[in-house]
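User: I want to check something. If I give you two sequences, will you return the structure for each one separately, not as a complex?

Assistant: Yes, each is folded on its own. Here is the first sequence with its structure:
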Amino acid sequence: MLDKTLAIILAGGAGSRLHPLTADRAKPAVPFGGNYRIIDFTLTNCLHSGLRRVLVLTQYKSHSLQKHLRDGWAIFNPELSEFITAVPPQMRTGESWYSGTADAIRQNLFLLERSNASYVLILSGDHIYRMDYAAMLQFHRDHGAGLTIACMPVPLASAGSFGIMSVDATNRIREFHEKPENPKPLPNDPHHALASMGIYIFSMDLLCQALHADHALAESSHDFGKDIIPRLIQSHNVYAYEFGGESGRVTPDRYWRDVGTIDSYYSANMDLLAPVPPLNLYQPDWPIRTYHGQNPPARMGPGANGHEGLLVNSLLGSGTIVSGGTVKHSILFPQVQVHEKAVVEDSILFDGVQVGAGAHLNRCIVDKNVRIPPGERIGFDPSADAARFVVSESGVTVVPKGYCFFSD
């Protein structure tokens, strides 16, 4: 069954709510967890699930993403019909860019039709989770489904941000509403609703039929959640697959996060520092693959004047040097430098960031290659920070890539 499945990862979104982290890169290419890119989690799921044919549909500022796929994911053998291939918009069916999730697939129907696949697994490249897709594929076949949608309970207060469904006793979906104003709670739990995770398995014939029919409708927004799924529920067997029930290949932790905003992204990173992380990066049966640069080991040592540093509950990427500084509850990517008497607290520092002597960062995200001047303070005066940087609703300050303090 796995060799008859084609996986398609939607990775072309602009990620405007993650700005400025997406000013120069697509959302799936945003660094995560001190070592990874967001898309690594979806690709790793494909790898460990036994899927060897993967198309990554790119569009917005895709250079960084394509470079990462080349450097970290050129692992399959094309001679065995295995591949992870980036597919930019090619305008084969018209003169428009991708105008919706369904339209992105439709514009590449020629790739689906020549794949000889019987099933299509459609994924998002901007979620953080572990999942055995093989178990979901087996569920799809066992139930004779035309479409299967992965789902999970979410708090009713936030359910309006998802596609919400109602199912019968056999898990067949009877209702589906995309981002409803008044989400319908679960029958046995008034505080939660059943939400789509944006993970779909289609039988190939049904997907092709649905995309052609959707394209013919002028009023359609060409989106799976808004247009295609509600129509298919009325005419075909559409089932809900509950996330977290997988066994054998992955230890189920039921952790899934949409990191589409600064606050949700920051929160998901901080989850990794919990005493018992809800997503364990050290789980031996499902390691997350990524590209690793040729860096020396991380080092913690005294500063030039002999001041000893302090490291408390933090993640350090390779090549990072903390020389006489203090790092508390923070995530540092490779080649970061924290100098003497500098303090980094509750922060995320991307590759190559340098924190000058005596500087103090609190609840910050600092993008690549920024040089924080000695004595600088960020994260303590919201109005002053907002005059220079993006400050999230919860007060996380984001210093953009390559920001130059000396021109202020």
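And separately, the second sequence with its own structure:
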Amino acid sequence: MPVSSSAHASDVLVIGGGIIGLVTAWRAAQRGFSVTVVDPEPGGGAARVAAGMLAAVTELHHGEQTLLGLNLASAERYPAFAAELAEAAGHDLGYRRCGTLAVALDADDRAHLRELHALQRRSGLDSQWLSGRECRRLEPMLAPGVRGGLRVDGDHQIDPRRLAAALVTACERAGVTLHRDAAERLTVARDRATGAVTRGDAELTAGQVVLAAGSFSGRLAGVPDAVRPPVRPVKGQVVRLTVPPRYAPFLHRTVRAVVRGSEVYLVPRENGELVIGATSEELGWDTTVTAGGVYELLRDAHELVPGLTELPLTETRAGLRPGSPDNAPLLGPTDLDGLLLATGHFRNGVLLTPVTGDVLAHALATGELPEVARPFTPQRFGAAPAASAVGPSAAPAVDTSPAPVPAVRTEQPV
């Protein structure tokens, strides 16, 4: 149960006000904790760039079967979570149970998709193989050359921007204090995390601290090296188009494919927006939108759905996903008393929002992780890896130099 003390301004201090930090704060407040979130722009971060695919099945990769269990647990919670949050915030989240269609454009893509289908079936997942003709019957805008595809009705979508805005409102209504500043340094006393100092020199104290700052989680000053999360930024560029009413409905469901070895997806919103993404670039902290990145996304999407060249281009953005060495999140207590992690969600942050909130609230209340999250304890990595060991396949080393922890803000998506 929450433990209040006059020595603590809050029971819980959450560093980072993206969707992961906000859902943690909201769920903790529902358990009776007094909670403060420190972030210069709550509701910002990578969610403003993400497409919002809830794709536990079509996002399955070889070697990630353990992560699959967590993804499925979160996907199962989404309908009730979305309904509860929409009621708490008083507005719609753009949650759609529209399904996903993954297609192949050539023989190599078709073979790759067949392998993915076999992996899904071995994993007990529900997906249906379709011929090219059946794919085009479902989505008439698809290119004539589509060779086949996988229909997954259980993979849904949500609008991450509406999700983030709803979480801000829900937190405020639940009594969460939003401290709009950047955390500069974790404070530690007697081998226990006790709060943070902000860029504006405010001293925020708390009984427990949750570090949920996305890609910046590994850069917060004051975090002992033994518990510093080994997260790195992975850049993603995204393009947004608008479907005029005369073209609607342009697509009925999320469509994705591998084109020339690169994944591309098209996510249609009910409000007429069409999100195309996303690049995956190991370029450190760069968030520049590049002509090459936009060109490649539009070129690959055009091969998939030729008619999109008639649609207005309304936005380009770049953001940073928080990658971890095994592409899975770090959840729960660390070896530093009072410090918990909720970071490293990589490409599954939006999908894992419900289960992360539940897991962290349980850990804050009991000191333990629920069974579904035990494979994702921060202790699985031990001390932060050496620079040469961070990230898969010689990915750039994570920069662990001390720095403020801002929200990920760009004017350019993931």
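Because they were folded independently, the notes below concern the second chain alone. The first strand starts at residue 10 and ends at 15. The chain has two domains: 1-96+156-231+324-414, 97-155+233-323.
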